[in-house]
Amino acid sequence: MSALVRFGVSLEKDLLQKFDLRLREKSYTNRSEAIRDLIREDLVKKEWQGGKEVTGSITLVYDHHKRQLLSYLMDIQHDFSGNIISTQHIHLDHFNCLEIVVVRGRPSDVELLFGKLKSAKGVKHASIAMSTTGKEVK
Ligand code: NI
User: Fold this and answer.
1) pTM for this predicted structure
2) 41-55 as b/e, with b when 16 or more CB fall inside 10 Å?
């Protein structure tokens, strides 16, 4: 772990009050941890803009009764087997399935996979949580 450094920050009182309010809403107990997280988020965003390896998870909600869709989603996932670490399938109710696809690889490949899954007809909702391998973020 690298050495801890203290630094001062000047900002408008109103802005600080808004920041502190957000920290309470998010259950932060101090500003330092919140600022660390903001910096980490920015670093992860940069990783996704670059070509380095990233990780993340794709969440899909789709209609279980559309058999062709199931097979189409499987075909896409097989095409990207090198980027998929694991998948979890949850039967939400009689009609709906939720699938979590954990991914890693180059941002462009992961985004291509996400785009293909999201745009498949019958997918009701798709989202991606962009994360990191943790190597560049302390
Ligand atoms: Ni299901």
Assistant:
1) 0.86
2) eeebeebbeeeebbb
